[in-house]
Design goal:
In chain A, about 35% of the residues lie in helices and about 20% in strands. Chain A is α/β, with parallel strands linked by helices. Chain A is globular, with a radius of gyration of 21 Å.
Chain lengths: ~375, ~300
């Protein structure tokens, strides 16, 4: 670890370290967290890096408190983040919902390990995909991103902060244990090469500012705490000024806007990678570390004369429906390998609607899925 | 309440938006809010200097009514949000209002850790010994042998003494006032808000709707009279015998100690990170450090 903040150009680092570097580049200046394997390195790196850039690292008493502190710091104007894994992610769900409701930008990293409960602390899984979508109570939209390499941990963490700021929303960064602990040589680009988005602050005087205004874009500008824009923040459903309401028209207005700000900007929010999909007849849909095995399996299938391709989901939520439907008439089948019992394959099936068979490869034994297991599924063999 | 006082409080309330309030007639929450407003005004803070944070419950509703920057958080978590606000923007004066259930049951862990860390916050804990908003269930401060809607056969748990709990956990300033001793409450708030570090004003309050009715205490006035008869100022209590103090409770400043607050301590971390990028412990010093921490 270098003493100064000028990171060398090429470094051999873990996904967790890369995520922390990405956070610093994105302008993260507040981290609150609680130790948990396999995410702890993110906290360790940031406890070292943040004070050097006048940021704050605080280790809280639990994950509930961590998420609370992150939201408080965000409302005060800081770019704020926490990182955790399965059991901690469960504890963060309460205040994650508050961040959705209060529209507090923040990034929540979940390095997925095997579950349920304490589960498999040092082994990989992708079991929290649906929890990321629906874990906190009540209807809400959410953005979740999923990196598949150490270098992408940098760039996608920056993107997570950008999306959080742009849409005034929590963004979940879903890593898995393989990506978090894997070491790769990466070229760390200078921070100037990244586009950094800052949340939109009001350009009107305080008395004109409406912190939860129903704007066309759906994301009203809001002032930082202490900046002269006094307003009320609550987890209760509120009117445009932020005060609790039970009036149906006001409830409808804010709930519609919360969804609209995400759903009407899918083109901006959703990203995916297409690999050998141009003429593919078998579409493998994968994400995270499993996408690496899937890429290898696709190459092997091509060598054996099978027209396979990979659709790698980078944005996990909202689900990239368009990407699945794009060449659907050409596909003879889908293969969805996941380290869970089928949390994304059910989304794929929902989109495909029987237009092609959807085969799954599911492993919940605490190891990543091998290319030969995916290849067997591509070929229609029992694995 | 004097006319001038009423006029002052009026200036701080969100009249056009959030009234009438939800509190029952005879509730102590308005008295606490009045004391807080007088204190902020007297100390000369601008409305923009203050962030008022609350949790869930009757006391938690206070944030909607007063024209500061206000943050109404999840149940029990007010201190965690407040910690984030304060550390991200230390120039703000962050005040937290919680009820007894909010602060010491669901938020108990956050309370002792905020005290241990000595984050520069002021916590007002309105202790009416019951969950009011949800309908009179027992809280961690409901006295043994009394009734609650979830203790129809009498309460068989023992209550927390909030001030002693915080005194043991840490924090710079611990005090106890009541909604009867209003002048004292103003004085305690004034000291607490000015104190650098974690400061607490436990405020003994009443719940005429649930606590008093369930336990045959009578009206709010009757409860106020009980508070008046049983509260003893700390200064006076110091010269009283154990027998004389039997059944009474202390009000006033219980702990006032100078401890570096978290932000001040964290500046050391920033300095080390920037200047040398490391922190070395002299092996000769380890034993002395262990001794001086008095952890066990």
């Amino acid at each position: 670890m270098p003493v100064n903040n000028q990171a060398p150009a090429v470094r051999l680092i873990q996904g967790n370290e890369a995520c922390a570097e990405g956070a610093i580049i994105a302008g993260c200046r507040f981290y609150a967290g609680y130790p948990i394997t396999p995410s702890s390195e993110i906290a360790e790196v940031l406890s070292y890096r943040l004070p050097a850039v006048d940021g704050t690292f605080i280790q809280m008493e639990d994950e509930i408190a961590s998420m609370g502190a992150v939201i408080g710091a965000s409302l005060a104007g800081a770019k704020a983040m926490t990182a955790t894994s399965g059991p901690g992610f469960s504890l963060m769900q309460e205040n994650l919902g508050f961040a959705c409701m209060a529209e507090a930008p923040c990034v929540l990293v979940n390095v997925m390990r095997g579950g349920p409960s304490t589960g498999l602390p040092t082994a990989p899984a992708q079991g929290d995909v649906q929890q990321a979508r629906w874990g906190t109570h009540g209807d809400h939209p959410i953005i979740a991103l999923c990196p598949d390499s150490v270098s992408e941990c940098v760039s996608l963490t920056v993107r997570a902060f950008n999306l959080a700021e742009k849409y005034r929303t929590p963004v979940i960064f879903l890593m898995d244990e393989v990506i978090g602990h894997m070491r790769e040589n990466i070229v760390l680009p200078p921070p100037s090469e990244f586009e950094i988005f800052q949340r939109i602050r009001p350009s009107v005087p305080p008395e004109w500012s409406i912190p939860y205004e129903d704007t066309e874009f759906g994301v009203p500008p809001v002032g930082d705490f202490g900046g002269g824009y006094r307003y009320h923040v609550t987890g209760l459903i509120h009117d445009q000024r932020g005060f609790p309401t039970l009036r149906e028209d006001e409830v409808e207005s804010i709930m519609n806007r919360l969804f609209r700000k995400i759903w009407s900007n899918l083109d901006d929010i959703q990203t995916w990678e297409e690999f050998m999909l141009d003429d593919a007849e078998v579409c493998v849909v994968a994400y995270g570390s499993v996408a690496r095995s899937a890429k290898n399996a696709v190459v092997q299938a091509r060598q054996q004369g099978i027209k396979a391709g990979l659709l790698r989901l980078v944005t996990i939520w909202p689900f990239c429906r368009q990407a699945v439907e794009k060449h659907i008439s050409r596909y003879k089948k889908f293969v969805v390998p996941e380290m869970n019992m089928g949390q994304i394959s059910r989304e794929v099936k929902r989109v495909v609607q029987g237009r092609a068979p959807v085969d799954t490869v599911n492993r919940i034994i605490g190891r990543l899925i091998r290319p030969d297991e995916i290849l067997a599924a591509i070929k229609g063999e029992e694995s | 309440m004097s006319t001038a006082d009423r006029h002052l409080i009026y200036q701080y309330l969100r009249h056009d938006k959030k009234f009438p309030h939800v509190w029952c007639p005879g509730c102590g929450n308005g008295i606490v809010l009045g004391a807080l407003i007088r204190t902020i005004h007297k100390l000369g803070y601008a409305k923009d200097d203050i962030v008022l944070v609350s949790g869930i419950g009757c006391a938690g509703r206070v944030t909607a009514y007063v024209d500061f920057t206000t943050l109404h958080t999840t149940h029990g978590r007010a201190l965690t949000f407040a910690t984030g606000v304060k550390l991200a923007k230390p120039e703000l004066k962050v005040i937290v209002i919680m009820g007894d259930g909010d602060a010491t049951a669901i938020g108990g862990n956050h309370l002792i850790h905020a005290a241990r860390r000595n984050v520069d916050l002021t916590a007002i804990i309105v202790n009416n010994s019951i969950y009011g908003m949800t309908g009179g269930q027992f809280s961690p401060t409901t006295p043994y042998s009394l009734k609650a809607t979830t203790a129809p056969f009498g309460h068989v748990e023992h209550a927390f003494n909030i001030s002693r709990l915080i005194e043991a956990a840490g924090g710079a300033f611990v005090s106890r006032g009541t909604v009867y001793h209003v002048n004292l409450l103003d004085q305690l708030l004034e000291k607490a808000v000015q104190k650098k570090g974690f400061s607490v004003v436990e405020t003994i309050s009443n719940c005429p709707t649930h606590f008093n009715k369930l336990n045959a205490i009578g009206s709010s006035v009757d409860h106020m009279r009980w508070i008046k008869d049983h509260a003893v100022k700390v200064e006076k209590a110091n010269s009283m015998t154990e027998e004389e103090l039997q059944g009474k409770f202390r009000i006033g400043v219980i702990v006032d100690r100078d401890l570096p607050d978290y932000q001040t301590e964290y500046e050391q971390v920033r300095r080390r990170a920037k200047e040398s990028g490391e922190y070395r412990i002299d092996p000769q010093e380890v034993s002395r450090i262990l001794e001086s921490n008095q952890c066990y």
